[in-house]
Design brief:
The complex is a heterodimer. By secondary structure, chain A is α+β, with helices and mostly antiparallel strands. Chain A has two helices and eight strands; from the N terminus they run E-E-H-E-H-E-E-E-E-E. In chain A, strands 1, 2, 6, 7 and 8 form a five-stranded antiparallel β-sheet that branches. A three-stranded antiparallel β-sheet of chain A has the order 3-5-4. In chain A, helix 1 runs parallel beside helix 2. By secondary structure, chain B is α+β, with helices and mostly antiparallel strands. In chain B, helix 10 runs antiparallel to helix 11. Classes of the chains: A alpha+beta, B alpha+beta. Chains A and B meet through strand 1, helix 2 and strand 6 of A and helix 8, helix 10 and helix 14 of B.
Protein backbone atom coordinates (compact mmCIF):
# COMPACT_ATOMS: atom_id res chain seq x y z
CA UNK A 1 0.00 0.00 0.00
CA UNK A 2 1.12 3.51 -0.72
CA UNK A 3 2.26 5.12 2.51
CA UNK A 4 2.45 8.74 1.38
CA UNK A 5 1.20 11.21 -1.16
CA UNK A 6 2.44 14.55 -2.35
CA UNK A 7 0.41 17.64 -1.48
CA UNK A 8 1.01 20.53 -3.73
CA UNK A 9 0.56 24.11 -2.75
CA UNK A 10 1.26 27.09 -4.99
CA UNK A 11 4.56 28.12 -3.48
CA UNK A 12 5.44 25.09 -1.40
CA UNK A 13 5.23 21.36 -1.25
CA UNK A 14 4.12 18.88 1.37
CA UNK A 15 3.52 15.22 2.07
CA UNK A 16 0.71 13.32 3.70
CA UNK A 17 1.94 10.15 5.35
CA UNK A 18 0.30 7.10 6.88
CA UNK A 19 1.67 4.53 9.33
CA UNK A 20 0.29 1.67 11.43
CA UNK A 21 2.04 3.03 14.52
CA UNK A 22 3.76 6.30 15.47
CA UNK A 23 7.10 4.56 14.83
CA UNK A 24 6.07 3.53 11.34
CA UNK A 25 4.62 6.99 10.71
CA UNK A 26 8.01 8.53 11.50
CA UNK A 27 9.86 6.00 9.34
CA UNK A 28 7.47 6.51 6.43
CA UNK A 29 7.74 10.28 6.79
CA UNK A 30 11.54 10.09 6.52
CA UNK A 31 11.21 7.75 3.52
CA UNK A 32 8.80 10.09 1.71
CA UNK A 33 11.10 13.01 2.56
CA UNK A 34 14.10 11.19 1.02
CA UNK A 35 12.12 10.28 -2.07
CA UNK A 36 11.10 13.87 -2.55
CA UNK A 37 14.72 15.02 -2.41
CA UNK A 38 16.74 12.41 -4.35
CA UNK A 39 16.64 9.10 -6.24
CA UNK A 40 16.56 6.79 -3.22
CA UNK A 41 16.96 3.35 -4.95
CA UNK A 42 20.59 4.06 -5.95
CA UNK A 43 21.66 5.25 -2.46
CA UNK A 44 23.72 2.68 -0.55
CA UNK A 45 23.46 2.24 3.24
CA UNK A 46 27.20 2.58 3.75
CA UNK A 47 27.18 4.80 6.80
CA UNK A 48 25.07 5.00 9.90
CA UNK A 49 23.93 8.23 11.55
CA UNK A 50 22.46 8.28 15.05
CA UNK A 51 19.91 11.00 15.68
CA UNK A 52 18.07 11.82 18.88
CA UNK A 53 15.85 14.71 19.89
CA UNK A 54 13.75 15.79 22.86
CA UNK A 55 10.54 17.72 22.41
CA UNK A 56 7.01 18.32 23.62
CA UNK A 57 4.94 16.39 21.10
CA UNK A 58 5.08 13.96 18.17
CA UNK A 59 4.72 16.96 15.87
CA UNK A 60 7.76 18.74 17.27
CA UNK A 61 9.81 15.55 17.29
CA UNK A 62 8.94 14.74 13.68
CA UNK A 63 9.86 18.23 12.43
CA UNK A 64 13.10 18.09 14.47
CA UNK A 65 14.00 14.66 13.11
CA UNK A 66 13.45 15.63 9.47
CA UNK A 67 15.27 18.94 10.05
CA UNK A 68 18.26 17.02 11.44
CA UNK A 69 18.29 14.82 8.33
CA UNK A 70 18.16 17.92 6.14
CA UNK A 71 21.01 19.46 8.11
CA UNK A 72 23.18 16.33 7.71
CA UNK A 73 22.39 16.24 4.00
CA UNK A 74 23.44 19.83 3.46
CA UNK A 75 26.27 20.29 5.97
CA UNK A 76 27.83 16.82 5.70
CA UNK A 77 26.85 16.25 2.07
CA UNK A 78 25.19 12.88 2.58
CA UNK A 79 22.11 11.22 1.11
CA UNK A 80 20.05 8.58 2.90
CA UNK A 81 18.06 5.57 1.80
CA UNK A 82 16.38 4.48 5.04
CA UNK A 83 15.57 5.51 8.58
CA UNK A 84 14.90 3.24 11.50
CA UNK A 85 13.18 4.36 14.70
CA UNK A 86 14.94 2.91 17.73
CA UNK A 87 12.83 4.57 20.40
CA UNK A 88 9.85 6.91 20.36
CA UNK A 89 7.69 8.58 23.01
CA UNK A 90 5.86 11.92 22.73
CA UNK A 91 8.90 13.42 24.50
CA UNK A 92 11.84 11.73 22.78
CA UNK A 93 12.86 10.21 19.48
CA UNK A 94 15.92 8.07 18.78
CA UNK A 95 16.64 7.00 15.21
CA UNK A 96 19.31 5.62 12.93
CA UNK A 97 19.62 6.83 9.34
CA UNK A 98 21.52 4.90 6.69
CA UNK A 99 23.17 6.54 3.72
CA UNK A 100 26.38 7.52 1.96
CA UNK A 101 28.31 10.62 0.84
CA UNK A 102 26.66 12.49 -2.04
CA UNK A 103 28.12 11.47 -5.40
CA UNK A 104 27.09 13.74 -8.28
CA UNK A 105 27.77 10.92 -10.75
CA UNK A 106 25.16 8.57 -9.28
CA UNK A 107 22.84 10.64 -7.12
CA UNK A 108 20.34 13.06 -8.53
CA UNK A 109 18.85 15.80 -6.40
CA UNK A 110 15.19 16.11 -7.31
CA UNK A 111 14.04 18.86 -4.96
CA UNK A 112 16.10 21.17 -2.81
CA UNK A 113 14.25 21.77 0.43
CA UNK A 114 15.09 24.77 2.59
CA UNK A 115 13.28 23.70 5.71
CA UNK A 116 10.68 21.48 7.34
CA UNK A 117 7.93 23.72 8.70
CA UNK A 118 5.62 23.42 11.69
CA UNK A 119 2.82 24.88 9.62
CA UNK A 120 -0.50 23.29 10.61
CA UNK A 121 1.27 20.04 11.39
CA UNK A 122 -0.83 17.53 13.28
CA UNK A 123 -0.11 13.88 14.01
CA UNK A 124 -3.43 12.12 14.49
CA UNK A 125 -5.03 8.72 14.64
CA UNK A 126 -7.26 7.76 11.76
CA UNK A 127 -8.88 4.46 10.74
CA UNK A 128 -6.79 2.47 13.20
CA UNK A 129 -3.53 4.02 11.98
CA UNK A 130 -1.64 7.29 12.19
CA UNK A 131 -1.50 10.16 9.74
CA UNK A 132 0.38 13.45 9.39
CA UNK A 133 0.77 16.29 6.90
CA UNK A 134 4.11 18.06 6.66
CA UNK A 135 4.79 21.20 4.64
CA UNK A 136 8.27 22.02 3.33
CA UNK A 137 9.75 25.35 2.41
CA UNK A 138 11.40 25.08 -1.00
CA UNK B 1 -5.58 24.12 2.97
CA UNK B 2 -8.54 23.25 0.80
CA UNK B 3 -11.51 24.81 2.62
CA UNK B 4 -12.39 28.39 1.81
CA UNK B 5 -11.70 31.15 4.29
CA UNK B 6 -14.47 32.56 6.49
CA UNK B 7 -12.81 35.98 6.75
CA UNK B 8 -14.75 38.82 5.15
CA UNK B 9 -13.13 41.83 3.57
CA UNK B 10 -14.62 45.33 3.76
CA UNK B 11 -13.74 47.58 0.83
CA UNK B 12 -12.46 50.94 2.08
CA UNK B 13 -10.68 52.26 -1.00
CA UNK B 14 -10.07 51.59 -4.67
CA UNK B 15 -7.42 48.94 -3.88
CA UNK B 16 -7.70 48.70 -0.13
CA UNK B 17 -9.67 46.25 2.01
CA UNK B 18 -10.09 46.00 5.76
CA UNK B 19 -10.64 43.01 8.00
CA UNK B 20 -12.37 44.70 10.95
CA UNK B 21 -10.97 43.76 14.31
CA UNK B 22 -12.96 40.84 15.71
CA UNK B 23 -12.48 37.61 17.63
CA UNK B 24 -8.98 37.40 19.08
CA UNK B 25 -7.53 40.15 16.89
CA UNK B 26 -5.58 42.93 18.60
CA UNK B 27 -5.72 45.09 15.46
CA UNK B 28 -7.47 45.37 12.09
CA UNK B 29 -6.24 43.54 9.05
CA UNK B 30 -5.47 45.58 5.92
CA UNK B 31 -5.14 44.10 2.45
CA UNK B 32 -3.96 45.96 -0.66
CA UNK B 33 -5.48 44.31 -3.72
CA UNK B 34 -7.56 44.92 -6.82
CA UNK B 35 -11.07 43.48 -7.15
CA UNK B 36 -9.85 40.97 -9.73
CA UNK B 37 -7.28 39.58 -7.28
CA UNK B 38 -9.84 38.78 -4.60
CA UNK B 39 -11.02 35.45 -5.92
CA UNK B 40 -7.51 33.99 -5.75
CA UNK B 41 -6.87 35.56 -2.34
CA UNK B 42 -10.10 34.09 -0.92
CA UNK B 43 -9.12 30.69 -2.29
CA UNK B 44 -6.04 30.11 -0.18
CA UNK B 45 -5.77 30.68 3.55
CA UNK B 46 -3.73 33.85 3.42
CA UNK B 47 -6.54 35.99 4.89
CA UNK B 48 -6.73 33.67 7.88
CA UNK B 49 -3.01 34.28 8.24
CA UNK B 50 -3.54 38.06 8.18
CA UNK B 51 -6.09 37.45 10.98
CA UNK B 52 -3.69 35.20 12.95
CA UNK B 53 -0.88 37.77 12.83
CA UNK B 54 -3.29 40.39 14.20
CA UNK B 55 -3.78 38.21 17.32
CA UNK B 56 -0.12 38.51 18.34
CA UNK B 57 0.71 40.74 21.33
CA UNK B 58 1.92 44.30 20.85
CA UNK B 59 0.90 44.71 17.22
CA UNK B 60 0.85 48.38 16.17
CA UNK B 61 -1.30 49.71 13.30
CA UNK B 62 -2.78 46.80 11.39
CA UNK B 63 -1.75 43.36 10.16
CA UNK B 64 -1.09 44.16 6.52
CA UNK B 65 -0.84 42.27 3.26
CA UNK B 66 0.64 43.60 0.04
CA UNK B 67 -1.03 42.74 -3.32
CA UNK B 68 1.36 39.83 -3.92
CA UNK B 69 -0.11 38.15 -0.82
CA UNK B 70 -0.22 34.39 -0.84
CA UNK B 71 -0.35 31.62 1.68
CA UNK B 72 2.85 31.18 3.69
CA UNK B 73 3.58 29.20 6.83
CA UNK B 74 2.45 31.19 9.84
CA UNK B 75 2.65 34.71 8.42
CA UNK B 76 1.41 35.18 4.85
CA UNK B 77 3.91 35.95 2.10
CA UNK B 78 3.47 39.63 1.32
CA UNK B 79 2.79 40.27 5.01
CA UNK B 80 3.86 43.37 6.92
CA UNK B 81 3.37 43.68 10.67
CA UNK B 82 4.95 46.05 13.18
CA UNK B 83 5.23 45.33 16.88
CA UNK B 84 6.09 47.68 19.70
CA UNK B 85 9.74 47.27 20.72
CA UNK B 86 8.65 47.65 24.37
CA UNK B 87 5.53 45.52 24.51
CA UNK B 88 5.51 43.53 21.30
CA UNK B 89 7.01 40.33 19.99
CA UNK B 90 9.51 39.17 17.39
CA UNK B 91 8.78 36.02 15.39
CA UNK B 92 11.04 33.95 13.11
CA UNK B 93 7.88 32.97 11.20
CA UNK B 94 7.36 36.66 10.38
CA UNK B 95 10.70 36.74 8.62
CA UNK B 96 10.79 33.35 6.94
CA UNK B 97 13.46 30.73 6.41
CA UNK B 98 15.43 32.60 3.79
CA UNK B 99 16.44 35.50 6.02
CA UNK B 100 17.22 38.62 3.97
CA UNK B 101 16.38 36.97 0.72
CA UNK B 102 16.52 40.04 -1.46
CA UNK B 103 17.38 41.62 -4.78
CA UNK B 104 19.89 44.09 -6.05
CA UNK B 105 19.96 45.90 -9.34
CA UNK B 106 23.05 46.99 -11.25
CA UNK B 107 23.01 49.49 -14.10
CA UNK B 108 25.55 49.87 -16.90
CA UNK B 109 26.74 52.33 -19.52
CA UNK B 110 25.87 49.72 -22.15
CA UNK B 111 22.96 50.11 -24.50
CA UNK B 112 20.92 47.18 -25.76
CA UNK B 113 22.48 46.87 -29.29
CA UNK B 114 25.93 46.50 -27.71
CA UNK B 115 25.01 43.24 -25.94
CA UNK B 116 22.29 41.76 -28.17
CA UNK B 117 24.64 39.53 -30.16
CA UNK B 118 26.69 38.59 -27.12
CA UNK B 119 24.02 37.54 -24.69
CA UNK B 120 24.80 33.81 -25.01
CA UNK B 121 28.45 34.45 -24.20
CA UNK B 122 27.53 36.68 -21.27
CA UNK B 123 25.08 34.17 -19.78
CA UNK B 124 27.48 31.25 -20.28
CA UNK B 125 30.23 33.20 -18.57
CA UNK B 126 27.97 34.16 -15.66
CA UNK B 127 26.85 30.55 -15.40
CA UNK B 128 30.42 29.29 -15.06
CA UNK B 129 31.59 32.13 -12.77
CA UNK B 130 28.69 32.14 -10.30
CA UNK B 131 28.05 28.90 -8.44
CA UNK B 132 24.43 27.79 -8.65
CA UNK B 133 22.54 24.61 -7.94
CA UNK B 134 23.35 21.79 -5.55
CA UNK B 135 26.62 21.85 -3.63
CA UNK B 136 28.52 24.13 -6.01
CA UNK B 137 30.95 26.74 -4.71
CA UNK B 138 34.03 28.65 -5.95
CA UNK B 139 37.37 27.13 -5.06
CA UNK B 140 38.88 30.60 -4.62
CA UNK B 141 36.56 31.50 -1.73
CA UNK B 142 37.25 29.27 1.22
CA UNK B 143 36.25 30.78 4.56
CA UNK B 144 37.62 29.86 7.97
CA UNK B 145 35.16 29.91 10.87
CA UNK B 146 36.71 33.14 12.17
CA UNK B 147 36.25 34.76 8.75
CA UNK B 148 32.66 33.55 8.70
CA UNK B 149 32.12 35.25 12.06
CA UNK B 150 33.48 38.48 10.55
CA UNK B 151 31.02 38.13 7.66
CA UNK B 152 28.17 37.65 10.12
CA UNK B 153 29.24 40.73 12.07
CA UNK B 154 30.05 43.04 9.14
CA UNK B 155 27.94 41.93 6.17
CA UNK B 156 28.77 43.59 2.85
CA UNK B 157 31.46 45.70 4.58
CA UNK B 158 33.48 42.50 4.94
CA UNK B 159 33.13 41.82 1.22
CA UNK B 160 34.34 45.31 0.26
CA UNK B 161 37.25 45.14 2.75
CA UNK B 162 38.27 41.87 1.09
CA UNK B 163 38.27 43.17 -2.46
CA UNK B 164 34.70 42.48 -3.55
CA UNK B 165 33.37 45.79 -4.79
CA UNK B 166 33.77 49.36 -3.60
CA UNK B 167 32.74 51.65 -0.75
CA UNK B 168 30.28 53.36 -3.13
CA UNK B 169 28.38 50.07 -3.30
CA UNK B 170 27.74 50.15 0.46
CA UNK B 171 25.92 53.49 0.17
CA UNK B 172 23.43 51.82 -2.12
CA UNK B 173 22.44 48.91 0.09
CA UNK B 174 19.62 48.92 2.61
CA UNK B 175 21.21 49.64 6.04
CA UNK B 176 24.56 50.01 4.20
CA UNK B 177 24.71 46.23 3.88
CA UNK B 178 25.48 45.74 7.54
CA UNK B 179 23.18 45.46 10.55
CA UNK B 180 25.17 46.50 13.60
CA UNK B 181 22.95 44.57 16.03
CA UNK B 182 24.15 41.31 14.49
CA UNK B 183 25.54 38.87 17.03
CA UNK B 184 27.48 35.95 15.48
CA UNK B 185 27.59 34.19 18.87
CA UNK B 186 23.83 33.72 18.66
CA UNK B 187 24.22 31.75 15.40
CA UNK B 188 24.59 28.02 16.11
CA UNK B 189 27.58 25.99 14.96
CA UNK B 190 25.14 23.96 12.90
CA UNK B 191 24.02 27.08 11.01
CA UNK B 192 27.63 28.13 10.50
CA UNK B 193 28.61 24.69 9.25
CA UNK B 194 25.64 24.60 6.88
CA UNK B 195 26.42 28.03 5.46
CA UNK B 196 30.21 28.14 5.49
CA UNK B 197 30.69 26.87 1.95
CA UNK B 198 27.63 28.63 0.60
CA UNK B 199 28.87 32.20 0.70
CA UNK B 200 29.09 33.43 -2.89
CA UNK B 201 26.51 30.96 -4.19
CA UNK B 202 23.15 31.59 -5.76
CA UNK B 203 21.21 28.58 -4.48
CA UNK B 204 18.27 27.00 -6.23
CA UNK B 205 14.61 27.53 -7.06
CA UNK B 206 13.60 31.10 -7.76
CA UNK B 207 17.07 32.60 -7.21
CA UNK B 208 18.70 34.07 -10.28
CA UNK B 209 21.03 36.49 -12.01
CA UNK B 210 19.27 38.24 -14.88
CA UNK B 211 20.66 40.50 -17.58
CA UNK B 212 18.02 42.84 -18.96
CA UNK B 213 17.40 46.32 -20.28
CA UNK B 214 15.17 49.28 -19.56
CA UNK B 215 12.24 49.11 -21.99
CA UNK B 216 10.02 51.77 -20.48
CA UNK B 217 10.65 54.82 -18.33
CA UNK B 218 7.76 56.33 -16.34
CA UNK B 219 9.69 59.05 -14.52
CA UNK B 220 12.76 60.24 -16.36
CA UNK B 221 14.12 62.42 -13.59
CA UNK B 222 13.99 59.70 -10.96
CA UNK B 223 15.21 57.06 -13.41
CA UNK B 224 18.20 59.26 -14.24
CA UNK B 225 18.99 59.64 -10.53
CA UNK B 226 18.94 55.83 -10.30
CA UNK B 227 21.32 55.65 -13.32
CA UNK B 228 18.62 54.15 -15.53
CA UNK B 229 17.75 55.22 -19.07
CA UNK B 230 15.82 53.75 -22.01
CA UNK B 231 17.63 50.77 -23.54
CA UNK B 232 20.28 50.79 -20.78
CA UNK B 233 21.45 47.29 -19.86
CA UNK B 234 20.86 46.14 -16.28
CA UNK B 235 21.65 43.14 -14.07
CA UNK B 236 19.37 41.78 -11.34
CA UNK B 237 20.70 39.51 -8.58
CA UNK B 238 18.24 37.57 -6.40
CA UNK B 239 19.49 35.40 -3.55
CA UNK B 240 19.63 35.28 0.24
CA UNK B 241 21.34 33.82 3.29
CA UNK B 242 21.31 30.25 1.97
CA UNK B 243 21.54 27.30 4.37
CA UNK B 244 22.85 29.52 7.15
CA UNK B 245 19.65 31.54 7.26
CA UNK B 246 17.45 28.45 6.94
CA UNK B 247 19.19 26.88 9.91
CA UNK B 248 18.98 30.08 12.02
CA UNK B 249 15.22 30.16 11.42
CA UNK B 250 14.90 26.47 12.20
CA UNK B 251 16.98 26.75 15.40
CA UNK B 252 14.98 29.71 16.69
CA UNK B 253 11.58 28.26 15.87
CA UNK B 254 12.53 25.56 18.39
CA UNK B 255 13.54 28.25 20.89
CA UNK B 256 10.37 30.27 20.26
CA UNK B 257 8.00 27.32 20.65
CA UNK B 258 9.24 27.03 24.22
CA UNK B 259 9.38 30.80 24.69
CA UNK B 260 5.74 31.23 23.62
CA UNK B 261 4.75 28.68 26.27
CA UNK B 262 7.00 30.36 28.84
CA UNK B 263 5.55 33.83 28.24
CA UNK B 264 1.98 32.58 27.88
CA UNK B 265 1.54 33.70 24.27
CA UNK B 266 -1.40 31.95 22.65
CA UNK B 267 -0.57 30.77 19.12
CA UNK B 268 -3.14 30.26 16.38
CA UNK B 269 -0.49 28.26 14.52
CA UNK B 270 2.85 26.86 15.79
CA UNK B 271 4.66 28.60 12.95
CA UNK B 272 3.71 31.97 14.53
CA UNK B 273 5.80 31.13 17.59
CA UNK B 274 7.48 34.17 19.06
CA UNK B 275 8.85 35.85 22.17
CA UNK B 276 8.69 39.38 23.56
CA UNK B 277 11.26 41.47 21.66
CA UNK B 278 12.79 42.49 24.98
CA UNK B 279 13.09 38.96 26.37
CA UNK B 280 16.42 37.07 26.27
CA UNK B 281 14.98 34.78 23.56
CA UNK B 282 13.78 37.75 21.50
CA UNK B 283 17.14 39.48 21.70
CA UNK B 284 19.02 36.32 20.84
CA UNK B 285 16.90 35.71 17.75
CA UNK B 286 17.25 39.34 16.67
CA UNK B 287 21.05 39.08 16.98
CA UNK B 288 21.14 35.80 15.04
CA UNK B 289 18.67 36.96 12.37
CA UNK B 290 20.66 40.16 11.84
CA UNK B 291 23.84 38.09 11.48
CA UNK B 292 22.15 35.90 8.87
CA UNK B 293 20.97 39.08 7.12
CA UNK B 294 24.59 40.26 7.02
CA UNK B 295 25.56 36.94 5.43
CA UNK B 296 22.98 37.60 2.70
CA UNK B 297 24.17 41.18 2.09
CA UNK B 298 27.72 39.85 1.82
CA UNK B 299 26.59 37.05 -0.48
CA UNK B 300 24.97 39.45 -2.95
CA UNK B 301 28.02 41.75 -2.76
CA UNK B 302 30.44 38.93 -3.63
CA UNK B 303 28.25 37.75 -6.50
CA UNK B 304 28.11 41.35 -7.74
CA UNK B 305 31.91 41.39 -7.93
CA UNK B 306 31.90 38.22 -10.03
CA UNK B 307 29.18 39.62 -12.30
CA UNK B 308 31.43 42.63 -12.92
CA UNK B 309 34.43 40.42 -13.68
CA UNK B 310 32.37 38.23 -16.02
CA UNK B 311 31.02 41.15 -18.05
CA UNK B 312 34.40 42.87 -18.24
CA UNK B 313 35.92 39.67 -19.60
CA UNK B 314 33.22 38.87 -22.16
CA UNK B 315 32.89 42.43 -23.44
CA UNK B 316 36.57 43.33 -23.10
CA UNK B 317 35.70 46.58 -21.37
CA UNK B 318 37.21 48.44 -18.43
CA UNK B 319 35.13 48.86 -15.25
CA UNK B 320 34.86 52.58 -16.02
CA UNK B 321 33.45 52.08 -19.51
CA UNK B 322 31.15 49.36 -18.34
CA UNK B 323 29.78 51.51 -15.52
CA UNK B 324 28.32 48.47 -13.74
CA UNK B 325 27.19 50.29 -10.63
CA UNK B 326 24.83 49.30 -7.88
CA UNK B 327 21.44 51.03 -8.08
CA UNK B 328 20.22 49.53 -4.81
CA UNK B 329 19.91 46.36 -2.75
CA UNK B 330 16.71 45.56 -0.86
CA UNK B 331 15.74 42.81 1.58
CA UNK B 332 12.50 40.85 1.26
CA UNK B 333 12.47 38.79 4.44
CA UNK B 334 13.46 40.75 7.53
CA UNK B 335 12.50 42.07 10.92
CA UNK B 336 14.02 45.49 11.54
CA UNK B 337 14.08 47.89 14.41
CA UNK B 338 12.82 51.17 12.93
CA UNK B 339 11.50 54.49 14.18
CA UNK B 340 7.99 55.27 12.95
CA UNK B 341 5.15 57.58 13.85
CA UNK B 342 2.17 55.50 14.86
CA UNK B 343 -0.92 56.45 16.83
CA UNK B 344 0.31 60.04 16.84
CA UNK B 345 3.63 59.31 18.55
CA UNK B 346 7.14 58.43 17.48
CA UNK B 347 8.10 54.97 18.59
CA UNK B 348 10.56 52.17 17.96
CA UNK B 349 8.92 49.28 16.16
CA UNK B 350 10.01 45.83 15.10
CA UNK B 351 8.78 45.82 11.51
CA UNK B 352 8.39 42.31 10.10
CA UNK B 353 8.41 42.17 6.31
CA UNK B 354 7.92 38.70 4.91
CA UNK B 355 7.91 38.81 1.15
CA UNK B 356 7.62 42.58 1.28
CA UNK B 357 10.05 45.41 0.52
CA UNK B 358 11.07 48.42 2.54
CA UNK B 359 10.07 51.55 0.58
CA UNK B 360 11.32 54.67 2.34
CA UNK B 361 10.23 58.12 1.10
CA UNK B 362 12.30 61.10 -0.10
CA UNK B 363 14.40 62.76 2.64
CA UNK B 364 14.41 59.74 4.91
CA UNK B 365 17.64 59.84 6.94
CA UNK B 366 18.52 56.26 5.92
CA UNK B 367 18.79 57.16 2.23
CA UNK B 368 22.07 58.08 0.52
CA UNK B 369 22.47 61.68 -0.68
CA UNK B 370 21.84 60.84 -4.35
CA UNK B 371 18.41 59.41 -3.50
CA UNK B 372 17.32 62.06 -1.00
CA UNK B 373 15.02 63.72 -3.54
CA UNK B 374 13.76 60.56 -5.22
CA UNK B 375 12.94 58.19 -2.39
CA UNK B 376 14.34 54.72 -2.02
CA UNK B 377 14.62 52.55 -5.14
CA UNK B 378 12.24 49.58 -4.81
CA UNK B 379 13.09 46.59 -6.98
CA UNK B 380 10.29 44.26 -8.05
CA UNK B 381 11.40 41.26 -10.10
CA UNK B 382 8.81 39.53 -12.27
CA UNK B 383 9.12 36.21 -14.07
CA UNK B 384 11.92 35.39 -16.51
CA UNK B 385 9.83 35.89 -19.64
CA UNK B 386 8.05 39.18 -19.09
CA UNK B 387 9.27 42.17 -17.10
CA UNK B 388 10.45 43.57 -13.78
CA UNK B 389 9.87 46.99 -12.25
CA UNK B 390 11.82 49.69 -10.51
CA UNK B 391 9.67 51.82 -8.20
CA UNK B 392 10.37 54.55 -5.66
CA UNK B 393 9.28 54.80 -2.03
CA UNK B 394 6.70 57.41 -1.01
CA UNK B 395 5.62 59.38 2.05
CA UNK B 396 2.26 57.63 1.92
CA UNK B 397 3.99 54.27 2.43
CA UNK B 398 5.67 55.73 5.48
CA UNK B 399 2.30 56.82 6.84
CA UNK B 400 0.26 53.74 5.94
CA UNK B 401 2.51 50.68 5.69
CA UNK B 402 5.53 51.50 7.87
CA UNK B 403 7.42 52.26 4.65
CA UNK B 404 6.66 48.94 2.95
CA UNK B 405 5.43 47.71 -0.40
CA UNK B 406 5.14 44.55 -2.52
CA UNK B 407 8.10 42.32 -3.43
CA UNK B 408 7.30 40.42 -6.62
CA UNK B 409 4.82 38.57 -8.76
CA UNK B 410 4.05 35.56 -6.63
CA UNK B 411 3.46 32.09 -8.03
CA UNK B 412 0.28 31.19 -9.87
CA UNK B 413 1.01 27.46 -10.18
CA UNK B 414 2.70 24.95 -7.96
CA UNK B 415 5.97 23.54 -9.17
CA UNK B 416 4.57 20.17 -10.21
CA UNK B 417 1.65 21.84 -11.93
CA UNK B 418 4.21 23.90 -13.88
CA UNK B 419 6.18 20.80 -14.83
CA UNK B 420 2.96 19.15 -16.05
CA UNK B 421 2.06 22.24 -18.03
CA UNK B 422 5.54 22.28 -19.58
CA UNK B 423 5.35 18.60 -20.55
CA UNK B 424 6.17 18.07 -24.21
CA UNK B 425 7.32 21.64 -24.60
CA UNK B 426 10.81 23.08 -24.76
CA UNK B 427 10.57 26.09 -22.45
CA UNK B 428 14.20 27.02 -23.00
CA UNK B 429 13.57 27.14 -26.77
CA UNK B 430 10.33 29.12 -26.32
CA UNK B 431 12.18 31.72 -24.30
CA UNK B 432 15.07 31.75 -26.79
CA UNK B 433 12.56 32.48 -29.56
CA UNK B 434 11.57 35.57 -27.61
CA UNK B 435 15.22 36.57 -27.34
CA UNK B 436 15.75 35.38 -23.76
CA UNK B 437 18.64 33.01 -23.20
CA UNK B 438 18.38 30.85 -20.05
CA UNK B 439 20.88 28.55 -18.34
CA UNK B 440 20.06 26.48 -15.25
CA UNK B 441 21.90 23.84 -13.27
CA UNK B 442 18.85 21.60 -13.73
CA UNK B 443 16.56 21.71 -16.79
CA UNK B 444 13.59 20.93 -14.55
CA UNK B 445 14.12 24.28 -12.83
CA UNK B 446 13.38 26.07 -16.11
CA UNK B 447 10.00 24.30 -16.29
CA UNK B 448 9.20 25.01 -12.63
CA UNK B 449 10.11 28.64 -13.12
CA UNK B 450 8.50 29.19 -16.53
CA UNK B 451 6.76 32.55 -16.97
CA UNK B 452 3.24 31.08 -16.93
CA UNK B 453 3.89 29.72 -13.42
CA UNK B 454 3.90 33.30 -12.14
CA UNK B 455 1.31 36.02 -11.89
CA UNK B 456 1.71 39.06 -14.09
CA UNK B 457 3.82 41.38 -11.93
CA UNK B 458 2.41 44.48 -13.64
CA UNK B 459 -0.96 43.82 -11.96
CA UNK B 460 0.73 43.79 -8.54
CA UNK B 461 2.70 46.95 -9.31
CA UNK B 462 -0.42 48.76 -10.51
CA UNK B 463 -2.06 48.18 -7.13
CA UNK B 464 0.81 49.66 -5.09
CA UNK B 465 0.96 52.59 -7.51
CA UNK B 466 -2.80 53.18 -7.19
CA UNK B 467 -2.57 52.86 -3.41
CA UNK B 468 0.24 55.43 -3.51
CA UNK B 469 2.62 53.31 -1.43
CA UNK B 470 5.22 53.39 -4.23
CA UNK B 471 5.42 54.84 -7.69
CA UNK B 472 6.60 53.48 -11.00
CA UNK B 473 9.97 54.61 -12.32
CA UNK B 474 10.97 52.12 -15.00
CA UNK B 475 10.26 48.70 -16.47
CA UNK B 476 12.96 46.18 -17.38
CA UNK B 477 12.84 43.29 -19.83
CA UNK B 478 14.98 40.16 -19.52
CA UNK B 479 17.65 39.18 -22.06
CA UNK B 480 19.44 36.36 -20.32
CA UNK B 481 19.00 34.50 -17.05
CA UNK B 482 20.97 32.06 -14.95
CA UNK B 483 18.90 30.03 -12.51
CA UNK B 484 20.03 28.05 -9.52
Amino acid sequence: MEYSRLIEHTADIGIEVWGASPEELFEHSAQAFFELMWNVPVVLPERKFDISENGNSYEELLVMLLSDLLYLHEAESVVFNRLEIVGLTPREVRAVAYGEPFDGGRHKIKTMIKAVTYHEIEVRQKDGGWVVRIIFDI
Amino acid sequence: MSEATTIKLEKIGDVKFRIPRHGKMNADGMVYASDSMLEKIYEDHSLDQVYNVATLPGIVGSSMAMPDIHWGYGFPIGGVAAFSADEGIISPGGVGYDINCGVRLLRTELELPKVKGKIKDIVSRLFSDIPSGVGSSRKDLNLSFSQLNEVLKEGAIWAVANGFGSHEDLEHIETHGSIDMADPDMVSDKAKKRGKNQLGTLGSGNHFVEVGYVDEVYDEKVAAAFGLYLSGVTVFIHTGSRGLGHQVCDDYIRVMLNAARKYGIELADKQLCCAPFNSPEGKEYFGAMSAAANFAFCNRQIITHWVRESLQRVLGMSPKHLGLELVYDVAHNMAKLERHTAGGKKQMLVVHRKGATRAFPPHHPELPDDYKETGQPVLIPGDMGRYSYVLAGTQKAMEETFGSTCHGAGRLMGRNAAIKKAHGRDIRRELADEGIYVRAADSMTICEEMPEAYKDVSVVVDVVQKAGISRKVARLRPLGVIKG
